[in-house]
Each structure stands twice: as C-alpha cells, then as structure tokens.
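Sanity check record (used in CI):
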Amino acid sequence: MHLARLVWSPRLLEYDFGPGHPMSPTRLDLTMRLIEALGLLDQPTLVLADAEQASDAVIETVHDADYVAAVRHAGTTLEPDVARGLGTDDDPLFTGMHEAAARQLGGSVDLAEALWAGEIAHGVNVAGGMHHAMPGAASGFCVYNDAAAAIRRLLDRGAERVAYLDFDAHHGDGVEAIFWDDPRVLTLSIHEDGRTLFPGTGASADAGRGAAEGSVVNIPVPARTTGAAWLRAIDAVVPAVVREHQPQVIVSQHGCDAHGRDPLSNLNVSVDAQWTAQQWAHALAHEHAEGRWLALGGGGYAVSDVVPLAWAALVAEAAHAPLERGGELPEVWRAAVEAMGLEAARTLGSGEVPFRSWRDGYDPADAVDRAVQATRRATFPAWGLDPLLD
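Expected output for Acetoin utilization protein AcuC:
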C-alpha cells in the first residue's frame, strides 16, 4: 500500500468566491505547483488521487437536508439566502457552489474511508479543512464542513475514538458544534482569542457537556502570540489530552493563517513553527492511532509566501519525505509566482523554533501562560489529570 494519499483535482479551484475575496483559489494552485516542483509527486510513498464530488446523502451526515438544497439552489440561481449564510460578504454566491463544496467534502470523506479500510496510513486534502460550516449555515468562507463529514464517516465505519486537532488561527467552531456532546470525538482547537478575532468563540471554559465533558478543548491565545509561545501552548495541553483519549484516528486541520504575514489574524506564528506542529500531529498519530492520520488545509490568505510553503511541508511530512528547513525553493516555482505579479518566498522557512517547555514552570505574568493554565484547569480534571502537574 502507498503510505500517503493526496487528493487533488483542478476542479477544486472552482471553489471561488470571486475577485478580491481572501480565499483565492490561487493559494491552492501555487501549493500544487510547489508540491510538484519539489518532486513530492515522484515520491514512492505518495500517491495522487482524484477528488470526487460527495453525494447529498454523504453531505447530510453532518448538514441539514434543507440546507443542502438551499446551497444547490443558491449556486444555480445566485439568489442570496442570508439566513443560511449564503450570499454574505464572507460567503458570496458563485455558480456551481454546491458542486465545488461537495468536491472538497468528498475528498476528505474518501480519505477517511481509505484510512479506516487500511488502504493508506496517511491522507491529505489541502483544499479541505472547512471547519466553520454549521449544520444549517455557511460561515467564515466555509459552505460544507468536510472535516466533520470525515469524522462522521470514521464513526460510522466503527471508530470509537477520533481526535480532531485544529491549528487554524480561527476557532474550529463548526466541528466543535457538531460533536459538542459526543464523547467519542475529542475536538481540540488552538486559536486567537475570540475577543479579538472571528468567530468570537472558543473560550477556555468551553469544554463540552454531560458524558462529553472534557472532550472539547480550547486554547485561546492572545493577539501577537509568537511561534515559540504557540508551540509552548500546544505542548502544554495537546500531548497529555491525546494520550488520555487514545484515539484510533487523528484528524488535523492545518490552516496557516496564524502566520505574521496573514492579513486575517493577529498572530505571529512562522512557517517553521507550523511545520513543527505538523510533525507533532504526525508523531501523535503513530504513537496513539497506529499511524492513522488525516491532514487537512483550512485558512491561510498570504497566498504566495506562506500557504504553499506550509502545505507543501505538510504533504512532505505525510509522505515521510520531510523537506530541508531553510532550503532554496525551486526557481521554476518562484518564476511562476512572479509571473502572476506576486511575491515569492526564497526559502522554505529558516530553521527550528526553540520554545520553553511547560515543564520549565508556569509564568503567571505571561498572557499565553495564563490562557494555557485556564484551559488546563477547565479540561484536565475530566481526564484525571492535574492541571498544575501533568
């Protein structure tokens, strides 16, 4: 079997809200060009598969049937349905909206199916990660929630525990809402504090309810958090909770909009730090889930100098063919970027990001440490962990 599968189709570029919208399909185009230029598609550990459009029945495992009908209608008539988030500034209408979003979702669900069947160890959908979509409404550039649908497919196929790790700058509210009271699903999101960033949710105290208490974990870090502090926050919470949950599959969302050059967040997390988080998610899958890892894209709006670098590194990580940090980017790719009138990065990051382990002590004067400790207090006891020690 091939170790990793990357789903891709040029038709995924049809998910296009129009000129001037932050979620430009150019970011996916340049990502795939870089993946090819780096020779990743020639790796024997990686296979490319088509992204197939999901059926209504599959989409309706996480979305209301009347919402799916509304998306199809809006994408045909271009008549807004603002009550369902269709035709807003965030989610403008475009012809074929249903088909394009169904293809995103189908790619992730097919990967989940292959993972659980043992056909692959790792799956990647850089066009996925649409974590804001709610059961009955579009939100935050997301029409259908492919991450939630992939998790639902895993549960339907017999998975008893799935861990969802969300590294996007924005809270993974849609996935959390769908599995809020399901103890089988651990939803863990590290994001900019909702008091300064959309969608305004994801407080430390939001920790699930009833039998699912503790299965929702939120780490809201303050604006201007650096990569080193971001990694410290992840290290302080994620490994301990995942260890207790013992997932059979890890699904991770790698929105790269936490970067300092991203126009839609206020964080300052470098590509190198995001790369480290990818490696950690991968390692957790091998440690706890027999290697089963589904990695998705997500946000990311620095289309030429951040997104392609972060997601090419993600594909390389899944293929067990990691790239050289600080290595020169292919000239053919840089030329293609510049031909589009965009700025091209010269190197793939610059090196490891040193960070201070949580074991070195809690600093109550540090805003990130205070946020982390609030999360640990809200969630660790439900897992039998001591928020001050573990």
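The chain has a mean pLDDT of 97. If this sentence no longer matches the regenerated tokens, the check is flagged for review.
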